[in-house]
Design goal:
Layout (H helix, E strand, L loop, with lengths): L34 E2 H4 E4 L14 E4 L4 E2 L2 E2 L15 E3 L5 E4 L8 E3 L13 E5 L2 E6 L9 H5 L1 H9 L11 H6 L1 E2 L1 H5 L1 H33 L2 H12 L7 H7 L1
Parallel strand pairs: 3-9
Antiparallel strand pairs: 1-11, 2-10, 4-5, 6-9, 7-8, 7-10
């Protein structure tokens, strides 16, 4: 059975788009809400480039693969600003990034303070232009929105909102229009504190893991162990024939 949608011309937005997928009812999140996401956060989408970069600080560059299930996970170091390559978006501690590509990968993350302390004196952080950057409005804490953005209902709405052929993306307007439930809005500050505690615990765990790997590598490189390894490698393997075994018996 087909779905019929009625819209006034004034509701079509810029470009007067009539594409049927734009009005897919699965894009709606059916919750009780008095405000939408645009009332809670600003969506920052200004781009920066290496040519216009003013700061001498090293830059941590994040792409969509570095955001997963609410946190930034990476294995690389900050680089000189000249290495930025294509345009990026500059972020601040406390921002939330969400990829407009492939919502099913759950590429949503809190930009935590530790990401800016990877170099003595600090570093800056920039992200791919495939990210929308959410920044709290009027003192609100965007970090508290991470679980909401990862919820099944929101993810389904964003998935239904993808447009385009080769690399489908959802639009900024869809993100802005998401209704924020009253319970989520009331507990925004509390949830943000929990997210920061979890992010700090994750950084401690990752750092401890790196220390453990470094310790093992150091132990493997000690002279005593290296000498023992050489003596084992230099010892010829003796081949015992079946006849000699029988003769011993």
């Amino acid at each position: 059975m087909g779905i019929h949608v009625l819209r006034r011309v004034a509701d079509l937005g810029n470009g007067l788009v009539l594409a049927p997928e734009r009005f897919d009812p699965r894009r709606r999140v059916e919750v009780v809400a008095r405000r939408c996401l645009a009332d809670v956060v600003d969506i920052v989408d200004e781009n920066v480039s290496a040519s216009g970069w003013k700061s001498p600080d090293a830059v941590l560059i994040l792409d969509t693969t570095h955001a997963y299930q609410g946190f930034v996970v990476f294995r690389h170091d900050p680089v000189p600003p000249a290495s930025m390559g294509s345009a990026k978006r500059r972020v601040q501690a406390g921002d939330v990034i969400i990829s407009r590509l492939r919502p099913y990968l759950h590429q949503v993350a809190l930009v935590d303070q530790a990401l800016f302390r990877l170099r003595p004196g600090g570093n800056t952080v920039v992200v791919s232009t495939e990210f929308f950057v959410l920044r709290g409005r009027d003192g609100r804490d965007a970090a508290g929105l991470v679980p909401f953005l990862l919820s099944e209902r929101v993810q389904a709405a964003l998935a239904a909102g993808q447009e385009g052929g080769h690399h489908p993306r959802f639009r900024k307007e869809l993100l802005q229009s998401l209704p924020v439930p009253e319970r989520v809005a009331r507990k925004l500050s509390q949830t943000a504190k929990q997210m920061r505690r979890l992010a700090a615990a994750l950084r401690r765990s990752l750092l401890a893991s790196r220390w453990l790997v470094a310790r093992v590598e150091a132990e493997m490189a000690t002279p005593a162990l290296a000498s023992a390894r050489r003596s084992v490698e230099d010892t010829p393997c003796r081949k015992t024939s079946r006849s000699s075994i029988i003769s011993r018996r």
